[in-house]
Fold each of these.
Amino acid sequence: MTEKEPQLASTVMMIRPVRFESNPLTAESNRFQGKNDASAEEQQARALEEFEGLVTALRDAGIDVIDIDDTPEPHTPDAIFPNNWISMHADGRVVLYPMEAENRRTERRMDIVDHLDKVAGRVVTEVVDLSGHEADGHFLEGTGSMVLDRSNRVAYASISSRTHLDPLGDFAQRMGYDVVAFEAVDSDGVPIYHTNVLMNVGEILAVICDEAIPREEQRKAVLARLRETGHDVVSLSYAQLDAFAGNMLELRNDQGERVTALSRRALDSLDNEQRAALEANGRIVCAPIDSIESSAGGSVRCMLAEVHLPNEQVNEP
């Protein structure tokens, strides 16, 4: 590409929950979830309230939100996390991803892609469908499995049961990315299920729980690549990782300001120096989503699918 793709989106897509609840098919690989013993009805009610609060906070900060309702059937308890099945790119391509849990695969909805193209005024030039890797038992759960440095064409990926090398290589070849793959584990030595739980790459600021990368050569390689691409690095602790501080997303609002979106729990876990680094980088937007985090094991970044698709050009008469 002759011109760098912008790193930050100004529009996000969010899926309004209809039958949200902790998903038993994802619990084995996601040690962050299942810490809520409320009934399914209570989980849905709380998640819906938290969802609407986050939408309001983002819009108040000048972020464009395309909100789409989930469907009651088929039951998709994790549909609130659309970034795992779809990514949208500045050249008009939409990528669909292979998902580990069978009841997450029906989250892939072509009617949503059509809505973006025909209703939301975005240009979709091609759909790149990687879901065929599911037949081989290989998975790559979108921008959960990968943290994309779009401007520098680097995909950071922590290998886990949800992130395999074959579809990762397929994505990289088709989309023109270099891959920085590594292993990351939680404080008990268990592989971390998604890369976006432990790191975020913004325009200038990168946030990462680097102590979660146990192999020194891999840790050094990740940090070196971040710095080589001009990023200032803020390191997180394991306690902050557990509070979803790594699961933040940097955006750009309608005033051209950088906006960092994260949960209230994540923000509260940061120390004064880390918070000052975020504040110096731009505006901070947070919302309490404790029920979503404890039930489903994902946070704000997981709820936001960045819309990098170009706007439809309106021809002047």
Amino acid sequence: MSGHSKWANIKRRKGAVDAERAKAFTKISREIIVAVQQGGPDPDGNFRLKLMIQKAKAANMPNDNINRCIQKAAGNGEGAKMDEIVYEGYGPHGTAILLEIMTDNRNRTASEIRYLFSRNGGNLGETGCVAWMFDRVGRIVIPMEGKDEDDVMMIALDGGAEDISFEDGSAEVITMPENLDEVRKALMAEGLEPSEVEVTRIPKNTVAIDDIEQARQILKLYDALDDYDDVQNAYSNFEISEEIMEQL
């Protein structure tokens, strides 16, 4: 498995301004609703819900908001039903894009996602057209301040991790999705508190973009899709150098 250290470049993070915070709360709320629909309202018996609650708290989402989402989903209240869909497509210059979507209106979302692709130089593809280019994995980030890399590596691997890398003062632990909770517990049992725990997708191979105009075209499409309300997560296999990103 490759490309872990490049993932921060591929999956760009936006600043925590008020508008972005509101958008983050909306997306987390949807994830909580789907988690409850699939596994029930008790986080002790629903690992996905437990992860979403941790994610909500890390984003400073008020407890009242979290509880309201859980109650709405558990009670099947109006507006609580959400469908989970994966859309796949192609971006400019040989790039692949995969979208994880939650929506209460499949027809509206399909039409608008297709429009965003076509308007920004891409094409919405058929199911399976690019999914094979990505590995679905569990990902755990451990702050490394005061910790020994060899010790953390041994704890992670003994706990069932598939791989581990170190960069920017953190350890990134990669697991099989179904082993994520087991590895998380093994790390925490040794005093290693994660700063991030998630199921995500990483590209098996990346497409290097070394032209600023090409990078601008790719990011225009990627950002348009990532900003769309129903898109929970947007993944792509492009790799843009820090030098070009700074110019942009």
